[in-house]
Amino acid sequence: MSAFLSKRFDSLTPYVPGEQPQDKKYIKLNTNESPFPPPPQAIGAIENAVERLALYPDPEQKALTQKTAELCGVSFENVLMTNGSDETLDFAFTAFCDTDTPALFADITYGFYKVYAEWKHVPYAEIPLCEDFTLSVDDYIGKKGVVFIANPNAPTGLLLPVSEIERLLHADTSRLVVVDEAYIDFGGETVVPLIKKYGNLLVIRTFSKSRSMAGARLGFAVGCKALIDDLKKIKYSSNPFNVNALTAAAGIASLENDSYNMVNCRTICENREYTIRELRESGFYVTDSKTNFVFAVHPNVSGKYIYEKLKENGILVRRFNTPRIEDYVRITVGTKEQMEILISEIRKITEAQNA
After folding, report:
1. What pLDDT, in 10s, does the model give residues 188-237?
2. HSE (side-chain half, CA atoms, 13 Å) at 115
3. DSSP state string for 17-53
4. Which residues of the chain are in CATH 3.90.1150.10 domains?
């Protein structure tokens, strides 16, 4: 670090993204990307938008926002487009958390929540998941602060029923609940309709997973008009042109051809169920994932060993050196062929260790 970095950041531990190695070609199952390209029309829309790169993009993203609102069954005023869902989180931590309003989130969840809290100098509490990795709403009721819930959760893949989130919303309507639905299109039920009933609900979504646009960086927030206006205040004070013209064009075309995306989601879900079944038959415990990844642990072989041996053999998965889950591996669901190769390699690894 230089001598110029503010002392405020001495203790900041940055988020660690999944590996993106360039040393050789890998079967990449470590960062929850889609194995499928976006709709062809989205590619064409990017090509057509190139000629407008000399101009600033629409700061309101009117066309994209309207399409997204229609997708969610809400009004234009209920949606804000962002540079990936991480920017939505950034805006939310900035707008709604401070020294008097802490952040509350699970001890095992998306790692950026803790990073944002520390970066923004917001007090926070990590609330332990249950022994089976489920989240108990009762652990949050009565506690002061903004609640951040990834649903389905990452890296566990588990889904919290809408009824439980509504119970949390209803318990204290003066407290904000932020629900991060990055993986909702892989078998979950969205809580977006609840924004019409609860002014204390903000929903965060992304185009990265189910719409194959991780490289484009496009996300959005859904909430009552007052909450969206709060986020706009932060946006226009920090990054008014936050969604670039190429990404916006691709996003509109993607939504206009969303049946393509949903077919891909169903295929990923089928491949996920195949992978879960094969891993369980190989002796793994696997959570009941409702995401585009699986979360698995073997009773006799460490997660570190499985991760390292797979990498040696050209397959990348994710492992977290974190208490309670250090022996688990998180495996992105790819094509059927990729998952068949993965299962074959994992069987070799576990059988060799058990021999």
Report:
1. 999 999 999 999 999 999 999 999 999 999 999 999 999 999 999 999 99
2. 13
3. PPP---SS--EE-SS---SSPPPHHHHHHHHHHGGGT
4. 18-36+259-354
**Is the overall model pTM greater than 0.90, yes or no?**
yes
pLDDT digits (tens, 9 = 90+) for 114-123: 999 999 999 9
Contact status, residue 247 vs residue 217, Cβ threshold 8 Å: yes
CATH fold of 18-36+259-354:
Aspartate Aminotransferase, domain 1 (3.90.1150)
Strand-pair partners of 148: 178
Which residue spans of the chain are classified as CATH 3.40.640.10? 40-256
For residues 187-204, b (16+ Cβ closer than 10 Å) or e, as one string? Answer: bbbbbbebbeebbbbbbb
User: Which overall architecture, per CATH, does domain 40-256 show?
Assistant: 3-Layer(aba) Sandwich (3.40)
Confidence bin at 24 (pLDDT 50/70/90): low
